[in-house]
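[job 0412] stage=fold_complex status=start
inputs:
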Amino acid sequence: MIEWLESALHLTVQMGTVYLLASLGEIYAERSGILNLGLEGMMIMGAALSFIFTLAYGHLAAIIASIAAGVLMSLILAVMAIRMRLNQVVTGLALTMLGLGLSGFLASPEIRRGILLTLNPNIPENLLGIQQAPTLPEYPIPILSEIPLVGEAFFHHNPLVYASYAAAPLMWYILFKTRLGLSLRSVGEDPAAADSLGVNVFLVRYLATMISGGFAGLAGAYLFLGFQPFWNEGMTAGKGFIALSLVILSTWNPLRAILGAYLFGGIETLQFRLQLMGWKAQSPYFLAMLPYLVAIITLTLISLENVRKRIGVPASLGVPYSREE
Amino acid sequence: MPTKIETRLGTIRIERRLTYSRLASAATTLTAFLLSLLVVAVILRVMGLDPARAFAVIGEVFLVPRLLSESVKQSIPICLSALGLAIAFKMNYWNIGAEGQIYMGMIAATGIVLLHAYYNLFHESMLLPLMTIASFILGGAWCLITGILKAKLNVNEILTTLMLNYVAILLVDYLVHGPWRDPKGYGFPLSIEFPDQAKLQFLFGSPACTGLLVAVVAAALVFCVLDYTRLGFEIKVVGQSLRVARYAGMNVSKIILLGSFLSGGLAGVGGLSIVSGIIGRLRPGASPGYGYTAIIVASLAGLNPWLVVAASIFFGGLLTAGGALQASMNIPRAATQMIQAIIFLFILVGEFLKRYRIVFERGGRT
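[job 0412] stage=fold_complex status=done
writing structure:
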């Protein structure tokens, strides 16, 4: 029983980390007023590039390439949404489509072979055709990982999971306790007021959007290298949109995102476990709906005026800013 | 916005355009479209594929009758959903839930077929009319949920419509894995096959012709509603300025409710056109993202119902070409999605160029 619970908790943290990483960046973008609906596309580009680059150069290069891909895609979003003031929703969705299409194209066996040979002409022949890559190694933290139950669940993971433990509080601190964070939130709340106080609205929004892209790429790399190292077209399977739900559930707060991430990770673990235990085949579908339904309910609750004021929903989310108007 | 970039050669400024003719607007869209194809060509070239041959394969789809009829078939769900989106977008209601509304429409249509097959509740000739009504109502209701939240509580419709997509997709998964699974289907997650009377092929026995008729009729209806009715006028006013609509004494929440219902309803009928026009039964993942392609189509067509029909056929052709590209050139199917997205991004940048212009001034910094 204890072992069952330990491995379930371990899986919960593994799954939750995908959502946590992706939502941390998205929280920054949305706090600055930019709704990045390209999250799913940036994640899957991260996954595809981490696949290709791991085979060509190894894990570190893969993680860097994934982050770079996310940042680059978010830069497209930033230019189109911030400078050109195009509709963020449509632009973001276009980027999601681009990511899904481009990743499937680049990582398909026919195209991948050529890319791998270009990246590394000395690559062993047997790596050219395989659909998987080695996972990131796990490093149990001494002493902590021996605590019963919690140790295995939280302290026996790969470095990216530990990075997410550090990133969430750090990003909370920056967002709520520093001048930079204050500028970021003010830009998402009332850009005109922030502008008149000397905050560079455009710069802050560019930075926040690129942070969201970088984290999305990292989340994709983690998804692939962390626990699902078989390339599958469209393997993010809506996880980017679950991360968007998580941002709402966390009410744009990085610390609350930790709890939400493990809640969603737990729901997903439960789906697997129930299936393994021979529950009726249909139960997982209703469990899988929960993250989306929770997001809709949260959105409804925070639309009530007094709740909204207490939580501080970014008031200018999705509204382009221009000095002319 | 820093609207000025100074370089050594001169200054680049971005200026808002005051007027822009219809012709120039069409020319911009066309240029953006051609540029996107150029980018696609470069990507294919870099990856060692022959772009000219790839475009020839895509072009062939529109010339060979068998492939053209397949393209038209594929375009119907896109077209119906995009017509719905045109209504919503005119209202400035960002319904990105056409995909989910499509799935709800498929559920409604299949439900009626099952009622007929299992309980024989009504005559065969009633099947298609009832399926159409049911899919319109269920698709509409799915969008109406978000409309109610928007109108009564001002809940952001972008996020709610998006989230409901996944709920609807999972609901279909549940139904075909569970209660609606074909008892004689060897355990595959499929519904029973639809009887011929439930298939969308009453015109010349051809699903493409029938679908095209439905699409054109729907486009005409949407055109009439938007341009010749009071509701259409109100929808456009709400879309342009909520404040003006309120000052004019319009019942804004009623308009949002009606508009969202119509928008979702059309996507619902789009769902019907998939199960009864393309597949002939319900299965998981029955829509490979028609609802998202519809967003591209609606933007590309500038929300004009007639152009929506034409643009849908183009994208239906692109989907059909995916298979041909794979078969003849070994280009992965994902390439068509990439091409769609690149076209979309360029069309969006074209929208920017219609509103603004970039001015170069000679003579640099002194």
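[job 0412] summary: The mean pLDDT of chain A is 87.
[job 0412] exit 0
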